[in-house]
# Entry
Amino acid sequence: VQVVERWNPYARVRVDLFGVIDLVVLTGSAIVGVQACAGASHAARRTKMLDAEHLASTGLWLASGGVLEIWSWAKRGARGQRKVWTIREEAITALDVRLAAQERAA
# Structure
């Protein structure tokens, strides 16, 4: 695992690899680009990956054989019980990219 997000001190913003990747994970069988975020930001990160500005880089990453995933973390648990940090993982697929591109064209 390697962190590929960097801090731009002049603009005071974090800059993701290709605008959408925070971590690169080598599994031995695949290269995985991960967007990591808080649970409340999961939908916003999915939208970001498929918006007009980032759609080309998202599609190129997938076309090059990479895998894209969103990992969001939140404290979850039953009411009255101890809350534990839980991960939600969602893969972004080539189909997602095609559907987003069709929506933009329509």
